[in-house]
């Protein structure tokens, strides 16, 4: 096992009661923890990645908030951050959170959790081996003014390795062997693309045509949980152009609360 593997992502939503069914029905995710007692939020899993769907609190914007690494040795990672990136902040994970032992950030400000399966704080689904299913998480996208600088951070700290597929132009793509971390350069295409930090997440599916059909059926049967068309709003053409730059995903939508995600076929 590599030192670090991507095992977690989290979104804050204004409407968890309609967002959770989207991920359950379209991506086949299952509830993976009972430790969070509130009925309006939950931790889901696709067998590979845990997805925390959290109710938005005051002061926290809705959207993709952070992602997380399961590692084999917490002290090694903490020492690398403190030694090689001394201006980086590290804080302890919140007590009631079933995954995060520590929280830190990369040079763009994108926050990530640090976890170790053997730690006493980690519980329930995050301690278990996963499963394989037809639709699974396969990439995280971060925008950066200097993709190479950010790549160096993740390679130094978590030992991710660089991959050259797909064609990347000025982007950098890293992998932990299962999930890719795509680092796109910021640009002036839109207000979204000029920001540094987490951009979107992506999933591999067995069939894009079947996934599109499932999205249409969900729209008809449960309109409140329907995906949002990223090109439908007044500035939608900018958003679509930004998502087309991903180079991994080939079909993009937003979840019911506007979190951007895309799909690629096996």
Care to describe what's here?
It is a single chain. This protein is an alpha+beta fold and 266 residues long. The chain folds into 2 domains: 4-127, Roll (2,3-Dihydroxybiphenyl 1,2-Dioxygenase, domain 1), CATH 3.10.180.10; 136-265, 2,3-Dihydroxybiphenyl 1,2-Dioxygenase, domain 1 (Roll). 22% of the residues lie in helices and 31% in strands. The chain is built from 5 helices and 15 strands. It has helices at 16-27, 74-84, 147-158, 208-221, 236-244, and strands at residues 4-13, 30-31, 42-45, 50-55, 63-71, 91-92, 102-105, 111-115, 136-144, 161-163, 172-175, 180-185, 197-205, 251-254, 260-265. The protein has an 8-stranded mixed β-sheet, covered by helices on one side. A hairpin with a 4-residue loop joins strand 11 (172-175) and strand 12 (180-185). The longest helix is centred in the C-terminal third of the chain and has 14 residues, at 208-221. The protein is globular. The model has no long low-confidence stretch (mean pLDDT 91).
């Amino acid at each position: 096992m590599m030192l670090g593997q991507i095992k977690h992502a989290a979104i804050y939503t204004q409407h968890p009661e309609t967002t959770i069914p989207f991920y359950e029905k379209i991506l086949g995710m299952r509830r993976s923890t009972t430790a969070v007692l509130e009925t309006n939020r939950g931790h889901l899993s696709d067998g590979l990645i845990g997805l925390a769907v959290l109710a938005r609190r005051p002061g926290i914007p809705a959207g993709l908030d952070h992602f997380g690494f399961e590692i084999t040795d917490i002290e090694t990672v903490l020492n690398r951050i403190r030694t090689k990136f001394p201006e980086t902040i590290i804080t302890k994970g919140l007590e009631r959170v079933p995954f995060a032992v520590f929280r830190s950030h990369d040079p763009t400000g994108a926050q990530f959790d640090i976890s170790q399966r053997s730690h006493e704080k980690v519980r329930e689904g995050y301690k278990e081996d996963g499963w394989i299913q037809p639709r699974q998480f396969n990439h995280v996208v971060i925008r950066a003014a200097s993709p190479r600088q950010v790549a160096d951070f993740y390679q130094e700290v978590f030992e991710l390795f660089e991959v050259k597929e797909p064609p990347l132009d000025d982007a950098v793509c890293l992998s932990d062997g299962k999930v890719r971390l795509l680092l796109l350069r910021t640009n002036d295409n839109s207000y979204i693309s000029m920001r540094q930090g987490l951009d979107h997440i992506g999933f591999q599916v067995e069939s894009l045509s079947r996934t599109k059909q499932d999205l249409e059926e969900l729209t008809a049967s449960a309109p409140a949980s329907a995906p949002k068309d990223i090109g439908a709003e007044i500035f939608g053409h900018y958003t679509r152009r930004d998502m087309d730059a991903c180079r991994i995903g080939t079909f993009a939508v937003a979840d019911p609360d506007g979190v951007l995600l895309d799909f690629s076929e096996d």
